[in-house]
TrEMBL record, chain A:
Keywords: FAD, Flavoprotein, Oxidoreductase. InterPro entries: Acyl-CoA_DH_CS, Acyl-CoA_Oxase/DH_mid-dom, Acyl-CoA_Oxase/DH_mid-dom_sf, AcylCo_DH-like_C, AcylCo_DH/oxidase_C, AcylCoA_DH/ox_N, AcylCoA_DH/ox_N_sf, AcylCoA_DH/oxidase_NM_dom_sf. Residues 6-106 form the Acyl-CoA dehydrogenase/oxidase N-terminal domain. Residues 123-218 form the Acyl-CoA oxidase/dehydrogenase middle domain. Its cofactor is FAD. It comes from the Bacteria. The keyword Flavoprotein applies. This is Acyl-CoA dehydrogenase family protein. Pfam families: Acyl-CoA_dh_1, Acyl-CoA_dh_M, Acyl-CoA_dh_N.
TrEMBL record, chain B:
It comes from Adlercreutzia faecimuris. This is Electron transfer flavoprotein small subunit. It holds the Pfam family ETF. Residues 21-213 form the Electron transfer flavoprotein alpha/beta-subunit N-terminal domain. Coiled coil: none annotated.
Length: 387, 254
């Protein structure tokens, strides 16, 4: 068993730490959380340093990579900043577009991405009546004979909607009924006629804007179709496992930041005549937090390594996503407890970390959906002969 | 033009442990590039980007400097090639010996027009190697350089002096040492990091550099300062006589 990372990965992390030290101050982070976006020049600097090119095809300037490297970058970015750096996922979004888009669509997306460093599209998938239960979506695509389509429906919880110039829309072909599995995806400009949006205000991760989008008879040319007609959902599912690994790395980085903050506070804060960490109840908390974070790390990197070996991670990516998203909230909560009352104020960043961790229980598939995926896989793993 | 940049690789000071007898234990310290040499590397890389010059980094030190991550770190910063002498016979060299070893490597690199050094090493900061290297090579030298522009067989450099900015043109070949504010070291891009491992590296042994002069400096001892408890003396300037007491305390401490 080898836990060593390569020279290149070490250098990359050194440079990432330097990038964070130069570009990301706590003052700027707080401004970005209020503004619901990271300043584009910082997104651009992150892209130009190469981190935003991981996984993208080389013909678009991309850098061949693997899931372990991606997880290392995301974990360290969150650990260094104690914040949800929304640009962590922009490259992976472009990876999706590069997989399914026509050469013209990919070129258009890459030009937008390289211009600002910001994600070039928002993903309009969830609906007010269809979150985890995507098959219940009622947004529709009507195919006209004149070479156009008409898009209708309401999408919600759309990240990056205000900043991305394009929207990746998915709707059911013609028939909104539950049993219709034919869905198509489109890449349309945000300012297309008939598109309106309204902000949703989260309690955490507010650094990423989040909106409801209304599609009211939006007429688009059929060549805005992304990928194959009727196979939109299958396309979307294809990279979910890699996305879960990235989100788990986000959880781990935040948990690590919370743990480090708590340990440093416990080393300095004096209570009852001695440092806080000299009290056994605090020592127990720190010990349990460290054990949890090490478990999180082991599960994440084992899963990422399996992904890189071409092994199936259907089970492990679901376990990983569920375990890390729930545990990061626990670690952040324990860290806040160590801080005491000051941790429940905006005077220190632990409250923000806790709020952001809580959001990981929903982002990219709820913990319950992960159980839905993993539970059946566990039975297949141990009792396939009985099924 | 061919530019050579001199780089010292030394133990990461964050990993150096002070032992019970106040000695410095660097045995577990990772090798890193001396901080000021990162500015020199950046200055060389920027000048090369402007002029199309080729760049070579030159390193001489004990066997521990032969570290694959450190080599890739240097080569990911806009440097084309690396020449490295890594031999325990080159450990603990003084400034003159270092200058002689580097001069031998500059001469063997063949065709070097310009040598760029950092402001000083991050451990000893003697600021001697640049001038002694120039002496060993027989080339003109300037230190404290804040800007470099290449000309036809010359370089024009700026130096910020106490009350004025000096502009000097030197014939090539020449040795320059650059001020830390000449250029902010880059954050190496991912592609540069991945490409670094494929760039040429020439390794030398101590024997390849000719015989070095005996050390001119004898190091008797290197020890950490005696730990002293903070006195935490507070003086209230609003009270009569407290300022005098403060001055007296300062004089006593000095």
């Amino acid at each position: 068993m080898d836990f060593k990372i390569t020279d290149e990965q070490e250098l990359m992390l050194d440079n990432l730490r330097e990038f964070c030290a130069r570009e990301i101050t706590e003052e700027r982070i707080q401004k970005w959380y209020k503004d619901r976006r990271v300043e584009p020049e910082v997104c651009k600097a992150y892209l130009d340093a190469g981190f935003g090119y991981l996984f993208l095809p080389e013909e678009y300037g991309g850098i061949p990579s693997d899931a372990v490297t991606l997880a290392l970058v995301v974990e360290e970015l969150m650990r260094c900043t104690g914040a949800t750096m929304s640009f962590m996922s922009y490259g992976l979004a472009m990876f999706d577009l590069a997989e399914f888009g026509s050469p013209e669509q990919v070129k258009m997306g890459m030009e937008a991405y390289q211009k600002t460093g910001e994600q070039c599209f928002s993903l309009a998938l969830s609906e007010p009546g269809a979150g985890s239960d995507n098959m219940s979506m009622t947004a529709t695509v009507h195919w006209n004979d004149d070479g156009t389509c008409v898009l209708n429906g309401t999408k919600t919880m759309v990240s990056h909607a205000e900043t991305a110039p394009f929207i990746m829309f998915i709707g059911k072909d013609e028939d909104p009924s539950h049993d219709n599995k034919s869905m198509s995806m489109f890449l349309i400009p945000k300012d297309a006629e008939g598109v309106k949006m309204a902000p949703l205000h989260k309690i955490g991760q507010t650094i990423t804007n989040f909106d409801e989008i209304y599609f009211d008879n939006v007429v688009v040319p059929q060549d805005m179709l992304l990928g194959k007609k009727g196979e939109g959902f299958k396309q979307l599912m294809k990279n979910f496992e890699l996305e879960r690994i990235m989100l788990a790395a986000h959880s781990l980085g935040l948990a690590q930041a919370a743990l480090e903050d708590a340990a440093r506070y416990a080393a300095q804060r004096m209570t009852f005549g001695k440092p806080l960490y000299m009290h056994q109840l605090i020592q127990e908390k720190l010990t349990d937090m460290e054990t949890t974070v090490q478990n999180m790390r082991n599960l994440l990197y084992k899963t990422a390594w399996e992904f890189d070996q071409g092994m199936s991670v259907r089970l492990d990516s679901a376990l990983c996503k569920r375990y890390l998203s729930s545990m990061c909230t626990k670690v952040a909560s324990d860290a806040m407890q160590i801080f005491g009352g000051i941790g429940y104020t905006t005077e220190c960043r632990i409250g923000r970390i806790w709020e952001d961790c809580r959001g990981d229980s929903f982002a990219g598939g709820t913990e319950e959906i992960m159980v839905h995926i993993a539970g059946r896989q566990v039975v297949k793993k141990y009792a396939a002969d009985l099924l | 033009m061919n530019i050579a940049v001199m780089v010292k690789v030394l133990p990461d000071d964050q990993d150096i442990v002070v032992t019970a007898d106040r000695k410095l234990d660097a045995s577990k310290a990772k090798p890193v590039v001396s901080t000021y040499d990162l500015n020199a590397i950046e200055a060389a890389a920027l000048l090369a980007a402007d002029t199309g010059a080729a760049t070579t980094a030159i390193v001489a030190g004990p066997a521990s400097v032969d570290d694959s991550k450190t080599k890739k770190n240097i080569l990911s910063r806009g440097i084309d090639a690396l020449a490295m002498a890594a031999d325990d016979a080159l450990a603990d060299m003084d400034a003159r010996q270092t200058a002689q070893a580097l001069a031998a490597m500059v001469n063997q690199a063949d065709g070097i027009d310009l040598v760029i050094c950092g402001d000083g090493s991050a451990d000893l900061y003697a600021q001697q190697v640049d001038v002694q290297l120039a002496e060993a090579l027989g080339w003109p030298s300037l230190n404290g350089v804040t800007a470099i522009t290449a000309g036809d067989g010359t370089v024009t450099v700026e130096r910020v002096l106490e009350n004025e900015r000096e502009t000097v043109t030197l014939p090539l070949p020449a040795v320059l040492s650059v001020s830390p504010d000449i250029a902010v070291p880059r954050i190496a891009g991912m592609k540069d990091i991945l490409a670094a491992g494929k760039k040429p590296v020439t390794m030398y042994a101590a024997g390849d550099l000719g015989e070095l002069a005996p050390a001119a400096v004898e190091v008797i001892d290197v020890s950490a300062p005696e730990p002293a408890a903070r006195k935490k003396e507070l003086f209230d300037a609003a009270q009569d006589g407290e300022l005098d007491a403060f001055v007296a305390a300062l004089k006593g401490a000095l």
